Amino acid sequence: MKKMFLVTILIAITASFFASAYPDGLEWVAGQFGFINLGVERVSLMGDNNTLIGVCGVLIILALFWGSARVLKKIG
Amino acid sequence: MHIPDGFLDPKISYGLMGAAVAVLSFALAKVKASVTALAAQPAFAAVGQGVSNFAGKGRRVLTKFGELEIYKMGMVAALIFAAQMFNFPVASGTSGHLIGGVLAVVLLGPFAGTVAMAAVVIIQALFFADGGLIVLGANVINMACIAGLSCYYIYVWFKKYLPEVVSIGVTAWLSVVLAAGAVSVQLWLSGTYELGLVLPAMLKVHAVIGVAEALITIVLVKTFRKLVQQ
């Protein structure tokens, strides 16, 4: 499990440098058909730093599940 | 594939939110039943308490296996989040990224996989502005239920006739195309755009993105299985 954790963090960091500026499939189609403007832009809590987003996301998700396991263990 | 707020009609959004809550509650109940067991009753403590136990009020406790299973769910969800960061360019100025629904259900089974995938989508929407909040239900339905839960059964069916690696790849490709189809139908039902135009365009782009989904899913399933043996 430890190794997998390290690999996951590594993937998050590496992948964040490969973030493409191109729109994703849905955004591209929305752009082609001109309904992209309907979309509401929301601002991320972490700003635009992809590495920070990747690492924080991984940690938040792990904390959520590992926390649930602890709570379930306590209350039964 | 994350739909932003504004693309879908509120009625469709809230309807799908209800559907997502229903499917997730069911999946969570299934997961809870699999990670817990009825607490063993000490002998003779049954005298008074036993009656209520017979009435079916037994306490459920987390099993050792269950605890590991939850950690594993967390690890798979974290892996999907990390892998989704990887944006690969696709033809003509488009990019794609992993959904991960098939990865989740192949590694965790149908219900734990759906819960893990939904957790990724919900955290992305709440913390990272990836996908809208009103359309969160739609995103959960598309990525966790259609590309996840339903694809588990497709994967099991393929596995009867094909080698496992091939079944994973084909299902992963199909999951992206199915999700793209679902998004198109939701856009059409919302009156955002005509189905006849939006559906072929969505399917075409995602048929290409799906190939990457298939390759990444196969590699990550192998990596995960190698590194996390129990």
The radius of gyration over CA of chain B amounts to 20 Å
Helicity level of chain A: 55-70%
Main sheet record of chain A: none
Give start-end ranges of low-pLDDT stretches of chain B: none
Which strand order spans the largest sheet of chain B, edge to edge or round the barrel?
A: 1-2
How many strands of chain B?
4
Q: Give the proportion of residues in helices of chain B.
A: over 70%
Q: What Rg of chain A do the Cα atoms give?
A: 17 Å
Summed over residues and divided by their number, the pLDDT of chain A gives a mean of 89
Largest interface, by Cβ-Cβ below 8 angstroms: which chains and how many residues each? A-B, 53 and 66 residues
Q: Overall 3D geometry of chain B?
A: globular
Which secondary-structure class do the elements of chain A indicate?
mainly alpha
Apparent shape of chain A = elongated
Poorly predicted runs of chain A: none
Query: What is the overall number of helices of chain B?
Result: 8
Q: Helix- and strand-based class of chain B?
A: mainly alpha
Task: Note the beta-strand portion of chain A.
Answer: under 5%
Biggest sheet overview of chain B: 2 strands, antiparallel
Please report the distance between the alpha carbons of the first and last residues of chain B: 34 Å
Task: Give the termini distance of chain A in whole angstroms.
Answer: 24 Å
Count the DSSP helices of chain A. 3
Q: How would you sum up this structure, described in words?
A:
The complex is a heterodimer of chains A (76) and B (230). Chain A is mainly alpha-helical and 76 residues long. Helices cover 66% and strands 0% of the residues of chain A. Chain A is elongated and about 50 Å long. By secondary structure, chain B is mostly helical. At the A-B interface, helix 1, helix 2 and helix 3 of A face strand 2, helix 3, strand 3, strand 4 and helix 5 of B.
